[in-house]
Amino acid sequence: MATTTMTHEQAEQRAHRNFYIHAAAYAGVNSVLAYIDLTNSPDRMWFYWPLAGWGVGLALHAVSVFVTHKAADRVLARQEHRAERQERREQRREERHQAHV
């Protein structure tokens, strides 16, 4: 099987897309948490704790994508690892097939 290789530009695009998915999940989930908090217990607000905690993680993700560009390197490494794993799987299948023939 021929494995498709990903260019660094494609890895950058995927890293950006992954960040935007992360940011959308952050906005969506924290909006729901804020709504729940403000409608059920406006006198005792807690929604800012997950907002702040997750915000730190999102900020670090942004740094790895847009500043250090390490996220693209991780995308490439992950893609290479998957290709190697797929190749090993196919080798084992072929060996099993040969053993039964």
From TrEMBL:
<feature type="region of interest" description="Disordered">
    <location>
        <begin position="78"/>
        <end position="101"/>
    </location>
</feature>
<protein>
    <submittedName>
        <fullName>2TM domain-containing protein</fullName>
    </submittedName>
</protein>
<keyword id="KW-0812">Transmembrane</keyword>
<dbReference type="InterPro" id="IPR025698">
    <property type="entry name" value="2TM_dom"/>
</dbReference>
<dbReference type="Pfam" id="PF13239">
    <property type="entry name" value="2TM"/>
</dbReference>
<feature type="domain" description="2TM">
    <location>
        <begin position="10"/>
        <end position="79"/>
    </location>
</feature>
<feature type="transmembrane region" description="Helical">
    <location>
        <begin position="19"/>
        <end position="36"/>
    </location>
</feature>
<keyword id="KW-0472">Membrane</keyword>
<keyword id="KW-1133">Transmembrane helix</keyword>
<feature type="transmembrane region" description="Helical">
    <location>
        <begin position="48"/>
        <end position="68"/>
    </location>
</feature>
